[in-house]
Write a structure and sequence with these properties.
Length: about 280
């Protein structure tokens, strides 16, 4: 009898009813009168500021430690691996800290993808992107303020297409890299996963941080790795170099295309949202 009760409890524990949450309204003006909305904007601003401050300092520090004009050890510094860890690690930390407040986007491409997936409203998406860009500018501005000589000498952490690579290759790298990131965000935060695997402690910021880390390993030699328009825009504004501005469109168009593809793939292919909507329509008819 005790065994039967135990088995029943295990079945009830492992099986959990799941219903898709309703899509967020396209325009939700009520958000504008809620303090929680403005608190989320502040969280996105501060998180992006801290993200750019730490990561750009890491990039400049690495270039300073390996500067051939100073007879520096070319194998010294943190290396590309360390830079990738800085970006991925900061995303892990900041998403963990802000996920319960703003969702922990810290990236206009992530916000855009979640908007297409009807996870956030248009008003929230636009204001998030503005807050993220302002935070990025302030974060890089702090780096320049504290290390002006090194900042100007070592490129300001700005994203540019590396010599030997075409703009098409760079655009493709940004599209694929952002697809990996946004696809991971959708998968890690999928409410169906939480319902199905409720007995497995899944820490969503961890795979998101690892996605950023892996993409940086692959694309740093090509573009310095954007996959975050706010990161690229903030560095370009403060560094204000012609090459960085000429290549800037790549770091907006590429991530937004990659985010759109990831949103479509997860929502309409893996989750079959279009088929579910059609079935619901037929049943109601």
């Amino acid at each position: 009898m005790a065994k039967e009760v135990e088995v029943t409890e295990q079945i009830e524990f492992s099986v959990k009813d799941y219903h898709d949450p309703p899509p967020v309204p396209l325009v939700d003006s009520e958000e504008l009168i809620k303090w929680s909305f403005y608190r989320a904007l502040i969280a996105e601003f501060i998180a992006t500021l801290l993200f750019l401050y730490i990561t750009v300092l890491t990039v400049i520090g690495y270039k300073s430690q390996t500067d051939p004009t100073k007879n520096a050890d070319q194998c010294g510094g943190v290396g590309i691996l360390g830079i990738a860890w800085a970006f991925g690690g900061m995303i892990f930390i900041l998403v963990y800290c802000t996920a319960g407040i703003s969702g922990g986007h810290i990236n206009p491409a992530v916000t855009f993808g979640l908007f297409l997936g009807r996870k956030v409203s248009l008003i929230r998406a636009v204001l998030y992107i503005i807050a993220q860009c302002l935070g990025a500018i302030c974060g890089v501005g702090l780096v320049k303020g504290f290390q002006r000589a090194f900042y100007d000498r070592y490129g300001g952490g700005a994203n540019e297409v590396a010599s030997g690579y075409s703009k098409g290759t760079a655009l493709g790298a940004e599209i694929i890299g952002t697809f990996v990131l946004v696809y991971t965000v959708f998968s890690a935060t999928d409410p169906k996963r939480n319902a199905r695997d409720s007995h497995v402690p899944v820490l969503a910021p961890l795979p998101i941080g690892f996605a950023v880390f892996m993409v940086h390993l692959a694309t740093i030699p090509i573009t310095g790795t954007g996959i975050n328009p706010a990161r690229s825009f903030g560095a370009a504004v403060i560094y204000n170099n012609k090459k960085a501005w000429d290549d800037q469109w790549i770091f907006w168009v590429g991530p937004f295309i990659g985010a759109a593809i990831a949103a479509f793939y997860h929502q309409f292919v893996l989750r079959a949202a279009a088929i579910k909507a059609l079935g619901s329509f037929r049943s109601s008819a």
